[in-house]
Design brief:
Helices cover about 20% and strands about 25% of the residues. The protein has about 180 residues and is an alpha+beta fold. The protein has a domain of about 130 residues: Thiol Ester Dehydrase, Chain A (Roll), CATH 3.10.129.10. Strands 1, 2, 3, 4 and 5 form a 5-stranded antiparallel sheet that branches. This is 4-hydroxybenzoyl-CoA thioesterase. It comes from Novosphingobium sediminis. Pfam families: 4HBT_2.
Length: about 180
C-alpha cells in the first residue's frame, strides 16, 4: 500500500522524516529512542498492559530505529522497507495504566539483507525489567515481493550501529526457543 493511501494502524513517528546517523556521529549503545507511558487503550480486562501491546511498543521503537538508519515514508515510497520475519517476546512483569516505560534497542547482528535486533522494556521509575523482544528483520523490495540487499548508504548506517553495539553484552534471552521443558528420565 503506498504511503499516501489511508491505513488503520499508525506509529507515533509516522510522517516525521528520518534523522539518520551521520558518518562519524557517536551512536549510543544501546539506543534509547522512545519513552511512552501506558495509556488506557493498552490496558486489558486483567488490569495490566495487554500482551499485544508489548509488541506494539516494540514496533514503535523499531520505527524510531528505522528513522535513525534512514528508513521513513520517503524511503518506502522508493519500493523498499524492512519487514519482520520472526519475533520472540518474553513478558517478565506487568505494566499498568500510567506506568512510564524505558525502552532500549540493541543491534545484535546484521548482514546484507537482515537485521537481528533486541528490545528491552523497563519500568521508567523502578527500573524493573518488564519485557524483552527479539526480532529478525529482512530488507525487502516491495514491488518484487522478495528480499533484497540494502543500498550502500543504509548498509553503512546499519553496520555503524552494529560496530557501536559490538561491546554490549549479549542478552541471555537471545536465540532461545519456546517449548515445555521436561525432566529426562
Amino acid at each position: 500500500m503506498p504511503d499516501n493511501e489511508p491505513h488503520g494502524l499508525t506509529t507515533p513517528l509516522e510522517g516525521i522524516a528520518a534523522d539518520p546517523f551521520q558518518p562519524g556521529e557517536a551512536i549510543p549503545a544501546p539506543l534509547r529512542l522512545i519513552r511512552p507511558t501506558v495509556p488506557r487503550e493498552w490496558v486489558d480486562y486483567n488490569g495490566h498492559m495487554s500482551e499485544s501491546c508489548y509488541l506494539l511498543v516494540f514496533g514503535d521503537q523499531s520505527d524510531a530505529f528505522f528513522r535513525k538508519i534512514g528508513i521513513d515514508e520517503a524511503y518506502r515510497a522508493g519500493g523498499h522497507s524492512l519487514f519482520t520475519v520472526q519475533t520472540m517476546i518474553f513478558n517478565l512483569a506487568e505494566a499498568h495504566l500510567g506506568d512510564p516505560l524505558d525502552l532500549a534497542i540493541q543491534l545484535i547482528d546484521a548482514d546484507d539483507k537482515r537485521l537481528h535486533i533486541f528490545h528491552t522494556m523497563h519500568h521508567g521509575k523502578t527500573g524493573e525489567l518488564l519485557a524483552t523482544g527479539e526480532q529478525m528483520l529482512v530488507h525487502v523490495d516491495m514491488n518484487a515481493g522478495r528480499s533484497t540487499p540494502m543500498p550502500p548508504e543504509l548498509h553503512a548506517r546499519v553496520h555503524a550501529v552494529l560496530a557501536a553495539h559490538a561491546g554490549l553484552e549479549r542478552p541471555s534471552q537471545v536465540g532461545r526457543s519456546i517449548g515445555i521443558r521436561r525432566d529426562k528420565k
